């Protein structure tokens, strides 16, 4: 199975600092997973012993309207991204 992340929502208003919930699967077992929104570090979660994680990150307030990628990286070769739009 491939590494995946799933977002609770795919859009937000600019500047509202919304939190989105993420689910991740098939990441490194018990590894920290760095999360980025539009290239801006937005947080870190830790995968469990099956390589799954769940948690929230805040959309950086400094991002203007546009399309961005929410990107997860466990720094051992497992990455995935999902589209996110700020209107």
Q: Can you describe this structure?
A:
The chain has one domain (4-86): Macroglobulin (MG2) domain (Immunoglobulin-like, Sandwich), CATH 2.60.40. Helix content is 0%, strand content 55%. The chain is built from no helices and 8 strands. The protein has strands at 4-7, 11-12, 19-25, 32-37, 40-46, 53-58, 66-73, 79-86. The strands form 2 sheets. Strands 2-8-7-4-5 form a 5-stranded mixed sheet, with no helix packed on it. The chain has a 3-stranded antiparallel sheet with strand order 1-3-6, with no helix packed on it. The radius of gyration is 12 Å and the shape is elongated.
Number of helices: 0
- Tell me roughly what share of residues is in helical segments: under 10%
SSE order: EEEEEEEE
Give the number of DSSP strands.
8
Tags for this model:
about 90 residues, Immunoglobulin-like, about 55% strand
In short:
The protein is mostly beta strands.
List the helices and strands and how they pair.
Elements: E1 4-7, E2 11-12, E3 19-25, E4 32-37, E5 40-46, E6 53-58, E7 66-73, E8 79-86
């Amino acid at each position: 199975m491939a590494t995946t992340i799933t977002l609770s929502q795919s859009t937000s208003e600019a500047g509202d600092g919304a939190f989105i919930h993420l689910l991740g699967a098939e990441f490194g077992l018990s590894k920290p997973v760095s999360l980025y929104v539009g290239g801006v570090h937005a947080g870190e979660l830790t995968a469990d012993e099956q390589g799954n994680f769940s948690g929230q990150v805040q959309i950086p307030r400094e991002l203007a309207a546009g399309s961005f990628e929410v990107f997860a990286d466990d720094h051992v070769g497992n990455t995935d991204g999902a589209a996110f739009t700020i209107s």
